[in-house]
Amino acid sequence: MSPFNPRSFRTATPTTRLLLIGVSAFSVIGGASYLWYQQQKQFQDRNLSSKPQKSSDKGHISAVSKMTVTTPFQTLFAVPMHCESCAKDISAAVHKLEGITKVEPNVKDQLVSIEGTAPPSAIVEAIQATGRDAILRGSGASNSAAVSILELFHDKSTKPTPAQGSFTDRHVRGLARMVQVNPTTTLVDLTLRGVSPGTYRATIREYGDLNDGAASAGPVWSKGKGILGTVEVGKDGRGAVFLSHPFQVWELVGHAMVVSKQDEQAGPLKNDEDTVVGVIARSAGMWDNDKTVCSCTGKTLWEERKDEVSKGML
Predict the structure, then answer these.
(1) What mean pLDDT comes out for the span 89-101?
(2) Labelling 160: which of 44, 48, 287, 304 has CA 20 to 30 A away?
(3) What CA–CA distance (Å, rounded) separates 207 from 95?
(4) Which helix (H) or strand (E) holds 75?
């Protein structure tokens, strides 16, 4: 007997009528609740597929799952090429990466333009696997990209003096590239090299003061907004993660980025061999950077690259 059958309702006893009303109400509420549950579950599933998980207790960061980046962006790389055969090798290597939609090598200008959702660090490795080096020359639109060179500060001899204004012996152990792909989303491509194995927590700090490394960078930026996620470093000392966050590049510029094994619940951050720090600075967008010779040193692009790699640059 259907709860909403009018004829059944009219011929039923008073007790049965009450029962029918109760069953009908339960059916309506239960159906609505089930529909709400399904909608919420679908919404959560979509979010969890593209956002890192993080707990809410005192800024602790949980393990970050693989990110699903769906918004394509452009990157431009300087790559030494001698002929069209070189261009074909590079194109084939990059197309093997997931998410690549376009690869356009230009042998004359020694540039490779790429579009897709693969992290820049993965593209560099794919090109290097062909026996050639690659330098990221620009990504995204103008004023939509940033970079942070992550260095060790545990050795006090690396700290700059006021007269020097720069580091005498840099120990680069990581690189973070950021590109804003739409008005509300920025991708963070974080790579570590030459550090001990384990889980590292990446954060953006309130200040850009690196006078005392991590110790002077302040608390996590914007009441937890600066919690980026974690990166797992293997036994080879290498680790990388590609993250998506709801902030804009201009908000990050001038802040420090810290990547460390330290648990901040145990106390303030200190400088040790497993903590790297860098200031976030703007970097060039697509076609914004046509420099081939450094105005400071007079060295060519590739001479500068060689010097930086010798200091640990990725």
Answers:
(1) 96
(2) 304
(3) 40
(4) strand 73-78
Which domains are seen in the chain, by residue range? 67-141 (3.30.70.100), 143-284 (2.60.40.200)
| pLDDT digits 0-9 by tens, 133-192 | 999 999 988 889 999 999 999 875 445 444 434 444 568 999 999 999 999 999 999 999
Nearest to 189 by CA among 175, 202, 199: 175
Report residue 162: phi and psi, to 5°. Answer: -55, -35
Instruction: Say whether 151 sits in a helix, a strand or coil.
Output: strand
Q: How far is it, in rounded angstroms, from Cα 84 to Cα 96?
A: 19
Share of the chain above pLDDT 70, in %: 65
The predicted-structure confidence for 189-222, as pLDDT tens digits, reads as follows: 999 999 999 999 999 999 999 999 999 999 999 9
Closest to 229 in 3D by CA, of 279, 267, 187, 278: 187
* Distance set, CA 48 to CA 6, 22, 41, 51, 258 (Å): 46, 38, 10, 5, 25
Q: Where are the beta strands (DSSP E) in 117-226?
A: 135-139, 145-152, 172-182, 185-193, 198-204
Angle between helices 84-95 and 120-128 (to 10 degrees): 130
CA separation for the pair 151, 24 (Å, rounded): 67
CA atoms of 96 and 112, how far apart (whole Å): 15
